[in-house]
Amino acid sequence: MVGRVVDLETDGRHLSLHRGFLVVSEGGEEVGRIGLDGIAAVVANAHGLTYSNNALVELAKRGIATILCGPNYRPTAIVWPVEGHHAQTGRMTDQTRAGAPLKKRLWTQIVRAKILAQGSTLAITGAPHGGFQLLSRKVRSGDPDNVEAEAARRYWPLLMGANFRRDRNAGGTNGLLNYGYAVLRAGVARAVMSAGLHPSLGLMHANRGNAMVLVDDLMEPFRPVVDLEVWRLVRDGFEDVTHDAKAVLARVMILDLPTAAGMSPVMVCIQRLTQSLARVYGGEGNALDLPMPRLPLGG
User: Fold this and answer.
1) How far, CA to CA in Å, does 90 sit from each of 85, 96, 153, 213?
2) DSSP 124-190
3) DSSP output for 259-277
4) Segment 213-217 long-range contacts (CB within 8 Å, at least 24 positions apart)
5) Which residues of the chain have pLDDT under 50?
6) What residues have CB less than 8 Å from 149, skipping those under 6 apart?
7) CB of 79 within 8 A of CB of 41?
8) How far apart are alpha carbons 95 and 106 in whole angstroms?
9) What percent of the residues of the chain are helix, what percent strand, and what percent coil, each to the nearest 5?
């Protein structure tokens, strides 16, 4: 399902549940509500927020990710359900049994798709993009040569300018990227849960302090979608994470991407990817269902 991202940016507000609606109130007075069926994720950025237990439980039961952000809009935690799929136990068992060779092959598919998407984003902005298709072909099983990092070193200066440095702890353009990635991460987390997979069992990311390593693996091919929206915001004069900038980035999940089945929203593409991963783990296939680049690449 493709729904709305609820962003909580005003300090001191309270979330509760009432007859199928998520209700936001301040000082005991309701300031807004939205039907639970229309929510894709809840992103909490403000300070002093409070939640009713019923609201958090119902969001989790519906597989709606609640993502808690710290400084500079970086995700700190995600509330996710204990049970996310009717076959969850079996799928997680398949996931734990997946061997390193399979994970390396899957990671290769993800890195190639990410690099092609980066090249496509550069092409859309009018930046030089020659060579990204070739870089994608250089990726070997598990990316032992770290072609992903080589592509990133070329990508960011071409997209954001020679002086730009990707820094998760910085503001400005980096803060915009952080916020966009937080929205994307919430969507991927929801899809992982809905597919009955465990977010802590990743393909390549292995940070022992990160409970969402699989989420971070699977969001990689979609990051350039966020990058393009941030580039457009910066081009239009946005220098920080304002209310209007958030509104633009919250719509990332409904942007269309080309797929083998035609154009589909990002959220649908993510759902197809996680479901295909579950099938591969279960021995029902070898390839991930990944979106295609938005423009044909040359060079």
Assistant:
1) 10, 10, 40, 20
2) HHT---TTHHHHHHHPPTT-TT-HHHHHHHHHHHHHH-TT----TT--THHHHHHHHHHHHHHHHHH
3) ETTEEEEHHHHHHHHHHHH
4) 215/78, 215/185, 215/188, 215/189, 216/185, 217/107, 217/110
5) 298-299
6) none
7) no
8) 13
9) 45, 15, 35
For the chain, what is the total number of helices (H) and then of strands (E)? 10, 10
- Residue linked to tokens 């989420």: 215
CB distance 26 to 61 below 8 Å? no
Q: What distance in Å separates the CA atoms of residue 157 and residue 122, rounded to the nearest whole number?
A: 11
Estimate the crossing angle of helix 147-160 against helix 223-235, to 10 degrees. Answer: 20
Could you tell me the CA-to-CA distances from 277 to 198, 210, 217 in Å, in that order?
12, 20, 12
- Give the whole-angstrom CA distance, residue 199 versus residue 214: 5
pLDDT at 299: 44
> For residue 114, what pLDDT is reported?
98
Which helix (H) or strand (E) segment is 232 a member of?
A: helix 223-235
Specify the pLDDT at position 7. Answer: 84
3-state secondary structure of 19: coil
Residue 205: beta bridge partners?
none
C-alpha–C-alpha distance, residues 188 and 60, integer Å: 15
CB 79 within 8 A of CB 51: no
pTM of the model: 0.81
Instruction: Please give the Cα distance from 244 to 122 (Å, whole number).
Output: 24
Yes or no: say if 283 and 91 are a contact pair by the CB < 8 Å rule: no
φ and ψ at residue 65, rounded to 5 degrees: -70, 130
Distant-in-sequence, close-in-space partners of 234: CB < 8 Å, separation ≥ 6: 160, 173, 176
Q: Which two tokens stand for residue 245?
A: 């900038």
User: Sign (positive/negative) of CA torsion 90, 200, 76, 222?
Assistant: negative
SS3 50: strand
